[in-house]
Amino acid sequence: MPFSKPEKSRRRKGNHVAELCDFNQLGLDFVAATSYSVQPRKETEPMNQELIEVLEKKIGDIIEKYTALKEENAYLNEEIQRLSDDREGIKLRVDAILGKLDGI
User: Fold this and answer.
1) What is the DSSP letter of 54?
2) What average pLDDT does the segment 94-100 reach?
3) At 71, is the secondary structure helix, strand, or coil?
4) How many angstroms separate the CA atoms of 26 and 35, rounded?
5) Structural Rg of the chain based on CA atoms
6) CB contact at 8 A, 77 and 85
7) pLDDT of residue 61
8) Would you list the domain boundaries of the chain?
9) Distance between CA atoms of residues 17 and 25, nearest Å
10) 7: closest CA among 17, 15, 22?
11) What's the whole-model pTM score?
12) I need a labelling partner for 60 at 20 to 30 A (CA). Which of 44, 52, 86, 94 fits?
């Protein structure tokens, strides 16, 4: 993060020093700390509980989908391996047939 006071070797003539003191330009905000933490009102507590239950259900659904996709991925990887092995076997047979044809 840039310093609010430039080093002597970095100082330039003109408005450069004023630019470094502009906190908005540096991306700093000075909002009072009390606005960051607001106590929830009592009537929002049941709504928060409902939101938590909905979130739990969605997380459960995501975990189920993840498990199903993981199993499907394992199955597809086995299928890829089986097809690769079949391909290699066919390739060897075709090479053998071509070798026999060259001998004729």
Assistant:
1) H
2) 92
3) helix
4) 21
5) 34
6) no
7) 97
8) 8-103
9) 13
10) 17
11) 0.46
12) 44
Q: Give the pLDDT confidence of 21-71 residue by residue, as tens digits.
A: 555 556 655 555 555 566 656 666 667 888 999 999 999 999 999 999 999
Count of all residues that appear for the chain in the document: 104
The number of beta carbons lying within 10 Å of the beta carbon of residue 20 is: 17
What are the distances in angstroms from CA 87 to CA 6, 16, 43, 81, 84? 68, 70, 66, 10, 5
Spatial CB neighbours of 19, under 8 Å, sequence gap ≥ 6: 25
Percent of the chain having pLDDT more than 70? 56
Q: Residue 17 is which amino acid?
A: V
Which residue in 102, 57, 32, 76 sits closest to 94, CA to CA? 102
